[in-house]
Known about the structure:
The chain has a domain at 1-158. Helix content is 72%, strand content 2%. The protein has helices at 2-15, 18-33, 38-62, 87-98, 105-121, 127-156, 165-168, 174-195, 197-219, 227-233, 243-258, 261-282, 297-331, 338-341, 347-354, and strands at residues 288-289, 292-296. It has a two-stranded antiparallel sheet. A hairpin with a 2-residue loop joins strand 1 and strand 2 (292-296). Helix 4 (87-98) runs antiparallel to helix 5, helix 4 (87-98) crosses helix 6 (127-156) and helix 8 packs antiparallel against helix 9 (197-219).
Amino acid sequence: MDAFWTGLMAISGWIHGDVAFLALILAISILLAYRSSPAARAHLMAALLTAFLLVWILKPIIAEPRPCWLGTPSAVTCPLDYAMPSMHAAIAFALAFACLRRPAFPILYTGAILVALSRIALGVHTLPEVAAGLAIGMLAVAIADQVVKEGAVMVTGKKRATASSAALRPTHHEGARKLAQVLLGSLVFGLAWIWGAPATVCLLVLVVLAGLFAFYLKMRGVALWLADDLLDLMERPQAPAGFGALTFCMGLILSLTLLPSDLSLVSVLLLTLSDSAAALVGAGQPARWPHNPSKSYAGSAAFLLLAVLPAFYLAGEAGLLMVLIATLIESLPMGVDDNLLIPFSGLAPLLLKLM
């Protein structure tokens, strides 16, 4: 084990510099892009660029100091930029997630985990900072999916056909899915309230890392006892089994890492209760938003009203502002899972403080 850590630290020190790390990622990307389709190449490049831009924008907004600024010993020269989220982790996981359907995923995924561990071992990041990078990597890939899909529509004028919900998951029950979401989110809310965000994030990261590998095996046709049922339980009928569970957990990680403690609890509440209420109340309602027919007035009202009082209790006026922006995000046809976007509504109060 000592030899493993010694080797990891040596390699980590070599690729610690941004130039060396980005050169390595670019070399791997060029290798992966060889013989890939134009759409696959565009998706890979879009995911990496999106991850880079998201981290570059978020760092000065969150303005979290590096652990090595605060006295934690660092094995390398302490970087001068802010810590949250980890750029290295975000790009490494974006590369892995962009190749989720490729045979190379286990290697890239293992490499991304080692990159994240090395950032902690070097003393330049904490676990929540690399965990945020993990979630940013998935968000970047989700945005890249939408960008490439919309680009294909613009070029061809044809929309991608989707299978019917019944054909994908005939035994799906929305009530059971939302109940599972409420139970999991309530557990995370309670743990964050009692333990604090860092310890809760540690537990969530372990769940997500195992869930991602189970998700990959499921896509490869490998049956997993119990895991298959758990992944199916928290899934929309039109999505790949397990994707909803992963994005929900990623949303919880983003909530607990990017936001201050009061706003992070509001975000968990929005993901857990408000989103579930919007789906259940809005189902079958005839009055729909003109900009997004898949969302109803009643669902948005339920989303807003359920969170207003708890948000004000937890975070005051900042919590109310967050709920209003989250309600708007939930109603928009963004093309990216709401679980990944709702936590960003909590950045508005932080931006107002910077102005």
